[in-house]
Amino acid sequence: MHYLIVTMGVHEMAACCDYLAERVTSDDTVTVVGLAPGEEAHATRDAREALNVAAVRLPAVGDVQTTLLTDVDDPASSLLEAVATADANELLLSPNDERSAGLATTGSVVQRLLGRSPIPIVVVPRTDL
Description:
Layout: E1 2-7, H1 10-21, E2 29-37, H2 41-57, E3 63-72, H3 75-86, E4 90-93, H4 108-114, E5 121-123
Parallel strand pairs: 1-2, 1-4, 2-3, 4-5
Helix pairs in contact: 1-2, 3-4
Pfam families: Usp
Protein name: Universal stress protein UspA
Keywords: Plasmid
């Protein structure tokens, strides 16, 4: 199985890793895309730190690949491109906004992806809020 995780920060990455912890084996592959929209230095730093979390939190995975996308103007389109090139079986996302994390609604990026993604999307709840 090949999982694609999209994250903007450590908390989102941790939630996705917790979700995968009981599901992955050494035969699985995980590709993590750190998304840093805009030109803000802290967004790039947060996404880069999230990428570092993946290898540490997913030791059972046979192969963990990471990519950092910076200065992203249209996150949904960038993520659809990542889905197309990653050849993944499942896309994992977690809310990056404390206002939407625990609510029954999804953010605008997830809403745009739901109707356009060729693979299943799992929205993983954050447990740190």
